[in-house]
Each structure stands twice: as C-alpha cells, then as structure tokens.
Write the structure tokens for this entry.
Amino acid sequence: MDETMSNNLADYFTLTYWLAEKHKEAVKAEQPWPGALMDQVNQEHTIYNRIRLRLNPMVRSEKELEERLQDLRNPDHHDTWPVKCGRVVSAYQTVMGEWRSRFDQ
C-alpha cells in the first residue's frame, strides 16, 4: 500500500520541483505559461489526483497531507522548497503510521 504512495510522492516531488523552476524561468522571460509544457502540467495534475484519491479529507492527518501537497504547487507560497518538502514528508509519515496501525489490527 505505501509503496505505491511513496512512488507517487517521489514522482510528484520531482515533477513539481521541475515545473516550479520552469515557471520561474517563464515568468522571468515573460513567456506564456505553461506553453509547450502542458503535457508535464497535466502529468503533475494526474499524479496529484492519484495521491488525493487515496486520502480521506475527513481524517485530519490526511487532510493535512493534502494541504501540504497544495503548498508545493503554489508558486506564491512563502516557504522554501526544502521546508515545504519536509512538511509533506512529515505529514506522509503520520498518515502511513495511522494506516499501518489501522490495517494491522
């Protein structure tokens, strides 16, 4: 169960960071966004939704993970990339711990 989620998160981190850097470049060069990168933006949306579909927004820790994932997508978020990633990892570890305890009973 958590291997699929881990793989999705790893893919999400990689693609979201890459897109964030490309977005900064486009803004700086005053180029339209996403332009030729629409396929990668759609892929990011797909991975994000794959993760979200596994989360229950009525469970506080799972809602927290969803919110931290949204922070990664937000180019105007005030925290640095490492801080945002750390928050996602922490929220993910909490959710995985709860899932293990729930399903191991």
